[in-house]
Amino acid sequence: MRGAVIGIVIGLVVGVVIGATVIAPRLTSPRQQAGLGNAGGGNSPAPLLPAKAKPSVHWKMASAYPASLPLLGTLAKRLERKIWRVSGGEIEIKFFAPEALVPSREIFDAVASGAIDAAFSSPGLWSGKIPALQLFAAAPFGPGPAENMAWVYLGGGRELFEEIYRKNGLHGVFCGLATAEAGGWFRKPIHVLEDFKGLNMRILGLGAKVMEKLGVVTSGFSEGDLFMALESGAIDAAEFSMPAIDFQLGFHEMSKHYYFPGWQQPSTFFDLMINLDKWNALSSTAKSRIEAVCGDNVRHGLAESEAMQFTALKEFTAKGIAIHRWPAEIMEALDGAWREVAAEEAAADGDFRRVWNSLTSFREDYAIWKELGGP
Amino acid sequence: MRGAVIGIVIGLVVGVVIGATVIAPRLTSPRQQAGLGNAGGGNSPAPLLPAKAKPSVHWKMASAYPASLPLLGTLAKRLERKIWRVSGGEIEIKFFAPEALVPSREIFDAVASGAIDAAFSSPGLWSGKIPALQLFAAAPFGPGPAENMAWVYLGGGRELFEEIYRKNGLHGVFCGLATAEAGGWFRKPIHVLEDFKGLNMRILGLGAKVMEKLGVVTSGFSEGDLFMALESGAIDAAEFSMPAIDFQLGFHEMSKHYYFPGWQQPSTFFDLMINLDKWNALSSTAKSRIEAVCGDNVRHGLAESEAMQFTALKEFTAKGIAIHRWPAEIMEALDGAWREVAAEEAAADGDFRRVWNSLTSFREDYAIWKELGGP
Predict the structure, then answer these.
(1) pLDDT higher than threshold 90 for residue A55
(2) A123 preceded by cis ω (within 30°)?
(3) Is the alpha carbon torsion for A279, A280, A281, A286 positive or negative?
(4) Which among B132, B119, B125 has a CA at the least distance from the CA of B172?
(5) Chain A residues inside the 8 Å CB shell of B146
(6) Considering only CA atoms, which of A206, A333, A313, A198 is closest in space to residue A260?
(7) In terms of CB atoms within 10 Å, which end of chain B has fewer, N or C?
(8) Hey, is the C-beta of B262 within 8 angstroms of any chain A C-beta?
(9) Would you say residue A9 has pLDDT above 60?
């Protein structure tokens, strides 16, 4: 009996030491990666991703964009990869392709209810539910990327955005940014305002409302149907994205006239939308990590979208696409129509009005700097 | 004996379990903060900073800018704060004010030798050692912030930057960005090119070489002496920074004519400069954390610098400062003089030539997009 007690004591002491110093570090090995790799000087290559981590945060993220889509899809994948690395494997935000978890149009409700944890999308996609969100994604004739960042992060935009999301059971972190879109593809050139009358065009959201003021008949085809409609001549024009993305999708095979600038989207924010309870349950460290990785994703999105367009434009030119700038008369008419649309939306909806007033007031001040600071 | 063996086995098993699950987690408590805060729903506020962390990385960072200086100083402090939070207290990069660790002009050598671990500064400060570094900070008539980001991160700029630093025993991570500077303060208005002849101006680096081509006598006063010289009339003009910073420093009390745009600095990068051996010794997780926090600092720097200028400009106007744009004749002469300076620098130094060629070639391509994409 005495032998057994002594044995238990010896075993306990040795076991605790082994457990704390040998077993536990192996269980938590990803965390070990957080500090200095190895004192010997780092010659043995560390694996890029900790292999056996057991994440504390394990979220499913519905992406509104397929992984293969330049920028939009790759920014969502970049978020998944970077948050894993920065957290040493403690935070997993797993990318799921569109439709894999829920139908894409149900993403907003699915995150709000907690059925899925998070989504990578753009606030503008939820205009059917909350019209004001469009102003956080891309406002027609609105700010370019740098001005948009100034308003969102330091001009009051983010606070309004978070307030609107919070009312809907959500928290949003701006998590990507794209520079200006193109103005769209047309089967025939647009010379005068009259050419818009009766034109059938695929264009969404606030841009569509502006076009309708000028006599365009708009529709909101999804990607697949859109190509068929444009190729067959069932529609006359389509607005989709930036040159690099339009190139990958092959719009130049279906129409020959490409217009600039993309007045309807001078810059576009993307966000990580998170169920509010799940956000609130995070530690401050986990929140900091998501905010830093998303902030870096905004930086990367702007840099990449600015860098990726000229190659596509060269290709279009080589393929004989006619690249046009909108005639001044048309830009003025579009701008005027947008002011009407904005006034109508603001009159119809309190949140839209508050966000529009904030953005407009910021831009009036910013104009003082923009006029002087630019080249 | 049999009892003792059984006892040791039982003790070992229990001990390993206790060691791995009870003792070890307490040893690593700061890391626990990385995941979910508390399962109860997060009502008890977590401390903003883990209080008792023992950092694995504990660096001293010499800042080239005082903490109180808007943007330049606050970006360095932001880096210190954010890297601590994102790492859950595992990485400490401690801010030291200018001159606190080493004289500011010795920062480059002190980091290269390992005498200090890191520094927050701008590559342009080391032009005396490596002229090419000026092109990574701010090139006269160079790219604005978004184009600069496109070149640095996706156009080959970063790779050249890292190569040049590496040859000097350093690793650099771009860690802040500022929008355009102002063109400078003048005691008398500048109407024609002739007004530059014999003018005494405080201006540094490549901008100074451009001004000298046009007959300006330049000098490189430090901040304190500069104010005395400008107030007393010992110099006629001075270029320092952006409106928000120039306002805080009180330039409007010493001269009344403020010129735009700041052709000499259309955007400025800042960086975290790290001793190369210390960077190489970091784990991949620690590297990811520094890169994400610095990337987010670039985003923040651009947003904040774009948002902070108009308030200062309003104040200047209220105080009767005359705000001018450079006459077209002068802008053309400055641009021409810069081309001469750039050609001379490229002829004199191989690294400058390589970086200049990379930047110039990128900008030729980017111009295709810039012309179309902008409003």
Answers:
(1) no
(2) no
(3) positive
(4) B119
(5) 145-146, 179, 302-303, 306
(6) A313
(7) N
(8) yes
(9) no
Name all domains of chain B by residue range, CATH numbers in brackets.
57-130+146-176+268-303 (3.40.190.170), 184-265+308-373 (3.40.190.10)
Interface list for B 269-288 with A (CB within 8 A)? 277, 280-286, 288
Question: Over the stretch B193-229, which tens digit does the pLDDT of each residue have?
Answer: 999 999 999 999 999 999 999 999 999 887 778 888 9
Q: Is the peptide bond before B261 cis (omega within 30 degrees of 0)?
A: yes
At B241, which amino acid appears? S
Phi, psi of B308 (to 5 degrees): -95, -5
Quote the minimal CA–CA distance from B314 to chain A in Å. Answer: 8
Q: Tell me the three state secondary structure of residue A49.
A: coil
CA–CA dist B278, B255 (Å, integer)? 46
CB–CB of A277 and B154 under 8 A? no
- Going by C-beta distance under 8 Å and a sequence separation of 6 or more, which residues neighbour residue A314? B365, B368
Test mutation, A36, A171, A285, A293, chain B, max B CBs within 10 A: A285
Residues from chain A that touch B158, judged by Cβ atoms under 8 A, are none
Distance (Å, rounded) from C-alpha A185 to C-alpha B122? 43
Residues in B closer than 8 angstroms to A153, CB to CB, are 299-300, 303-304, 307
CB contact under 8 A, B292 and A292: yes
Lowest mean pLDDT segment, chosen from A188-197, A293-302, B3-12: B3-12
Task: Please name which of B290, B334, B303, B296 lies closest in space to residue B59, comparing C-alpha atoms.
Answer: B290
Q: Residues of B with CB below 8 A from A14's CB?
A: 8, 11-12, 15
Angle between helix axes B350-373 and B328-348 (nearest 10 degrees) is: 140
Put simply, whether B208 touches A (Cβ < 8 Å) is no
- The yes-or-no verdict on residue B42 having pLDDT over 60 is no
What spatial distance separates the first Cα and last Cα of chain B, rounded to whole Å? 89
Nearest to B243 by CA among B321, B189, B301: B321
Give per-residue burial for B226-239: e unless 16+ CB within 10 Å, then b: bbebbeeeebbbbb
What ipTM goes with this model? 0.86
Answer for the pair B302, A146: CB distance below 8 angstroms, yes or no. Answer: yes
Distance CA B323, CA B259 (A): 6
Query: If you search the block for the tokens 């393929």, which residue do you land on?
Result: A319
The 10 Å Cβ neighbour count of residue B1 is 7
Mean pLDDT of chain B: 89
What does the alpha-carbon distance between residue A329 and residue B118 come to, in Å, rounded to a whole number? 55
Summarize pLDDT for B308-330 with one digit per residue, the tens.
999 999 999 999 999 999 999 99
pLDDT band at B29 (very low <50, low <70, confident <90, very high): very low
Contacts across the A-B interface (CB distance below 8 Å): 365
**Closest-CA residue to A184 (of A266, A253, A257, A269):** A257
Instruction: Report H helices in chain A.
Output: 2-18, 24-27, 29-32, 72-86, 107-113, 134-137, 145-149, 157-167, 205-213, 223-232, 243-249, 276-280, 284-307, 309-318, 328-348, 350-373
Identify any residues that bridge with A275 across adjacent strands, giving them in sequence order: A170
Contacts A291 to B, Cβ<8 Å: 296
Other beta carbons within 10 angstroms of residue B205's beta carbon come to 20
Per-residue model confidence as pLDDT tens digits over A277-290: 999 999 999 999 99
A73-102 residues touching B, CB cutoff 8 A: 82, 85-88, 90-91
Q: Position of tokens 């879109």?
A: A181
- Closest CB to A293: pick one of B4, B285, B292: B292
